[in-house]
């Protein structure tokens, strides 16, 4: 159950890390979207193992992650019928996980899956593996193709790795963050992140970080109070990505130490009669509804739990054991998680746009 995300634009994913492949079905996709397979593949390439964006943080697993579209497209456009796709797994090394079948990796979903289902696929984490996010990236790429046509553009970049913040090394720029290593928002921080990940790799450990997602051109009025507020839906979408442990909208937790007079975003009309905000502490969402300002969200990503250092754990037979996790693993989920979080934001906004259109067409407000 619950392998589907979205209400009108609905993504259902299937597949495991070491099974034949990962796939999905997108239902509710509007007809007539020009399907740019090159763009979809480029988004997948940003997430795939051993890619150019990951630097020293990446895994050595080598997968092409080539998309095969199975249905829902005719002459380069969506038909409105289910958009189905599949990405083959080609570089599994299931033997790396043979000793993990009877033990629980600290920080992983192993014990949770056993407690819930009584049986699990131990190869690479099975369904709990980060490879499941492939389907999300495809869904997000298709959503972006639609959103761009109506003036909405989504940016995602790495704000910090292991407490090293990009803002401390230069101005934040969105223009090239999608092309730079680590998805860094400035060039100056890249060498610092590279050095830190190399140090942590040698220490047989892992690290976490912060990803910022910004959506520009979002019209005012998206969001459905009271139980489908835009900020609530965005938080739900981002928290649904495995390694994310916290989400902030706008100033986030900092508002708890602010004052109302400072935290409020003042409004004024300019000389041309355009409504303008003096600030954007709210992250573009007030009362659960977009206000026309850029949507700003941050996701806090935990360190990869697969570490080569020895850790205390238990076996399924009730023994206390010491476990060192081998195999091929990332040192940091960032930057490979950046396109995944961007995709989840895109799917959420796509869903909200379609819901707003339906309500307007039905005369509901």
Tell me about this structure:
- About 25% of the residues lie in helices and about 20% in strands.
- With about 375 residues, it is α+β, with helices and mostly antiparallel strands.
- The strands form six sheets. The chain has a five-stranded antiparallel beta sheet with strand order 1-2-3-7-4, covered by helices on one side. A five-stranded antiparallel beta sheet has the order 9-8-10-16-11.
- α1 (about 35-45) crosses α3, α3 crosses α7 and α5 (about 230-240) packs antiparallel against α7 (about 340-360).
- The longest helix is centred in the last third of the chain and has 24 residues, at about 340-360.
- The model has no long low-confidence stretch (mean pLDDT about 90).
Strand content: 15-25%
Multimeric status of the protein: single chain
Strand order of the largest sheet: 1-2-3-7-4
Give the total of beta strands: 18
Helix and strand composition category: alpha+beta
Question: Averaged pLDDT, please?
Answer: 92
Q: How would the global form be characterised?
A: globular
Reconstruct the topology from this structure.
Blueprint: E1 4-5, E2 10-15, E3 21-27, H1 37-47, E4 67-71, E5 73-74, E6 77-78, E7 83-88, H2 110-117, H3 133-149, E8 153-161, E9 164-165, H4 190-202, E10 209-216, H5 230-239, E11 244-249, H6 260-263, E12 267-269, E13 275-277, E14 285-286, E15 289-290, E16 295-301, E17 311-314, E18 320-323, H7 338-361
Antiparallel strand pairs: 1-2, 2-3, 3-7, 4-7, 5-6, 8-9, 8-10, 10-16, 11-16, 12-13, 14-15, 17-18
